[in-house]
Amino acid sequence: MQLEVSEQEKLILKVVEEYLNKNRYFDMNEILPFIMSRLKMTSSNLNMRRIEEILKILVKKRLIVEGSKLSINDILSNQKRKEIYDYIVQNPGVYFYKLIKELKLSNHVVTWHLNMLLKFNFIKKEKFENRDLYFDSSYDESNPRFRYFTSKEKSKKIITYLRNNDYGITKTQLSKELKMHSTTISKYLKVL
Predict the structure, then answer these.
(1) pLDDT at site 127
(2) Which of 139, 148, 156, 166 is 20 to 30 A from 3, alpha carbon to alpha carbon?
(3) Sign of the C-alpha dihedral computed for residues 73, 113, 69 and 64 taken in this order
(4) Sequential DSSP letters for 50-115
């Protein structure tokens, strides 16, 4: 996840991170005097209005988030959060309970870290069939729902069977061969 950041933005972000490291939350109004006092010691000639503009740009780019103690540079420093993020990158379209099961984490821990990853735009979420599917924010596929379906075990069984047996088969025969209900077979074939 690479964003273009100007030198002025880097300078302000560095001061914001210093502020946040003192166990404070980011609040636009409270941080301005702190930034002004720090910048008096530098050769930069940024006025209050320009600092506010830069802060708004940093918020828009989600490098900092109002009400958070973290900046974008801190997000992946947490081991569990990085583990969740890496799993999502490697398994696009993964759903909540699969994250819990595969990573052996509690639902509260996964919820907290997913919210942080969403807040800072590391990941995106798409709702499908009463499930939240998670993708890397840069993931660009025309049909993420198709990705979700093809990652399911039943889909894999159907695809593998059809590849290995290309002579043609009815839904009823496929249902018997794979020991799946015919409604399930129909549902999956419709999407596939």
Answers:
(1) 85
(2) 148
(3) positive
(4) HHHHHHHHHHHTTSB-TT-S-BHHHHTTSHHHHHHHHHHHHSTTEEHHHHHHHHT--HHHHHHHHH
Measured distance CA(184)–CA(95) in Å, rounded: 20
Q: Which residue has the higher pLDDT, 98 or 142?
A: 98
Cα distance between residue 17 and residue 13, in whole Å: 6
169 near 182, Cβ under 8 Å?
no
Mean pLDDT of 82-93: 93
Model confidence at 136: pLDDT above 80: yes
Residue from 70, 93, 92 nearest 81 by CA = 70
Domain 76-142 grouped into CATH 3.40.50.200 = no
Specify the higher pLDDT residue, 172 or 116: 116
The predicted-structure confidence for 141-170, as pLDDT tens digits, reads as follows 666 666 766 777 777 788 888 888 777 777
Q: Which long-range contacts (CB under 8 A, 24 or more apart) does 70-77 make?
A: 70/20, 70/116, 70/120, 71/13, 71/16, 71/17, 71/20, 71/26, 72/120, 73/13, 73/17, 74/17, 74/20, 75/116, 75/117, 75/120, 75/122, 76/122
Q: What's residue 144's pLDDT? A: 64
